[in-house]
Structures are given as C-alpha cells and as structure tokens.
C-alpha cells in the first residue's frame, strides 16, 4: 500500500498546528504503526549502544583509551549525519508530486504538526531495521572498530531523539540548555532553511546555516 499524505508538502513553509495529527496512510494498520512512544526508539538505540560495548570488550575488540576514542568518534560522526540527513533528505525540495509526497511523509508532517508527540521518532520495527543496518555498514567500513563507533553513533542517535522530544514536549528550561530549544524553534517557526542541527549546533556554525539575528 502506497502512503497517502493528508496534504502535499507546499513550496512555502506550512503554518504549524499545535493540536491534532495528520493521516499519512489509508491502511489503518500502517497508520497505527506510524505512531510510536518515544521510549521505544530511545530504548532500542541505548540497548544497541550497551550491547556493542559489551560485545566489543568481552571479545577483545575494545580496550581502554581506544574504546573511548572510537566511542567519541562515532558520536562526532552522528552529529554530522544528523545535520546532513535533516538538511538534504528531510528538506528535499518538493519539485515534483512524488518528491512532495516523500518529503511530507518523512518530515513535512512534523513541521505541520510539531506538537504531535507520537511522530517524533521512527516506529520500533523501523528502528530495529536501522540499528541492524548501521551495524552491518559499520562492520564493513570499520572492521573490528565497528563496535566502538556504533556504540557512540547509536548513543548520539538516542540523545538526539530525547532532545528532540523534550524540545517539542516540554517548556524551555531556564538554564544553558535553553539554547537547544531556541535553536530548533528558529527552524520551525522563523527560518526553516537554516538551523538544521538538533542535538548540536556544531555543523550549523561550521557550514554557515546558523539563524540570522532578529532585527
């Protein structure tokens, strides 16, 4: 069954709705599976992190400072992947009906209904698939280092999901953490062509996509 969005992604930014949820699929089962509680994907990625570290240490693939270095390397890699996917895939220009449908289903629906807590992460079955795919890709690319890199990457993924959920579900904190809320709010409500980092603003600074100061 092909996904059928409630509305195509328009060329101009959509006006956010703070209540309700869009229907993405005509099939009731697929529609139900497109909603998930944030605890499932966060838990799956944290479990992947712990299993990777456990297997790496118990089988001699990880040890000491090298494990910490690989973990931090995987975490750093995630920050770039998060930025690149958000900017180039989730904000793919909707130049054709097919691209419009894809963009709306993948991300446009989130911009239209930013307070829909059940669509802030992938469903569990998709999360398991992504975690498994990441393992095979990292094993192929990094060899025995994969367990440390994967642990850092999936920990970054879990952190991103938690931060993103907190930004949309809770009021801004009155401390240094408010920078995340402010940065992501700029992306949703003022300038959706900038501020692509969610768990980190690093790549927005380096690539030049920080929001412009309000006049």
Give the helix/strand layout.
Layout: H1 28-33, H2 39-58, H3 64-90, H4 97-112, H5 124-142, H6 146-169, H7 178-189, H8 202-207
- How far is it from the N-terminal to the C-terminal residue, by CA? 48 Å
Order of helices and strands: HHHHHHHH
Radius of gyration: 18 Å
Low-pLDDT ranges:
1-12
What does this molecule look like?
- The radius of gyration is 18 Å and the shape is globular.
- It contains 8 helices and no strands.
- It has one domain (28-207).
- It is mainly alpha-helical and 215 residues long.
- Helix 2 packs parallel to helix 5, helix 2 (39-58) packs antiparallel against helix 6 (146-169) and helix 5 (124-142) runs antiparallel to helix 6.
- The N and C termini lie far apart (48 Å).
List keywords for this structure.
single chain, 215 residues, mainly alpha, 8 helices, 60% helix, 0% strand
Sum this structure up briefly.
Residues 72-209 form the Fatty acid hydroxylase domain. With 215 residues, the protein is mainly alpha-helical. Helix content is 60%, strand content 0%.
């Amino acid at each position: 069954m092909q996904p059928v969005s409630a509305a195509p992604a328009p060329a101009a930014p959509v006006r956010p709705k703070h209540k309700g949820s869009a229907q993405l699929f005509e099939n009731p089962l697929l529609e139900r599976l497109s909603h998930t509680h944030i605890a499932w994907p966060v838990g799956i990625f944290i479990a992947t992190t712990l299993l990777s570290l456990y297997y790496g240490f118990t089988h001699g693939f990880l040890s000491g400072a090298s494990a910490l270095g690989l973990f931090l390397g995987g975490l750093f890699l995630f920050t770039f992947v998060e930025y690149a996917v958000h900017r180039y895939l989730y904000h793919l220009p909707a130049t054709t009906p097919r691209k419009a449908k894809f963009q709306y289903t993948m991300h446009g629906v989130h911009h239209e209904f930013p307070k829909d807590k059940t669509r802030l992460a992938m469903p569990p079955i998709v999360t398991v698939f992504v975690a498994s795919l990441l393992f095979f890709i990292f094993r192929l690319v990094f060899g025995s280092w994969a367990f440390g890199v994967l642990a850092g990457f999936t920990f970054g993924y879990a952190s991103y999901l938690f931060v993103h959920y907190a930004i949309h579900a809770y009021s801004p904190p009155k401390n240094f953490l408010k920078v995340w809320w402010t940065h992501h709010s700029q992306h949703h409500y003022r300038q959706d062509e900038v501020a692509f980092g969610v768990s980190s603003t690093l790549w927005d600074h380096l690539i030049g996509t920080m929001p412009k100061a309000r006049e």
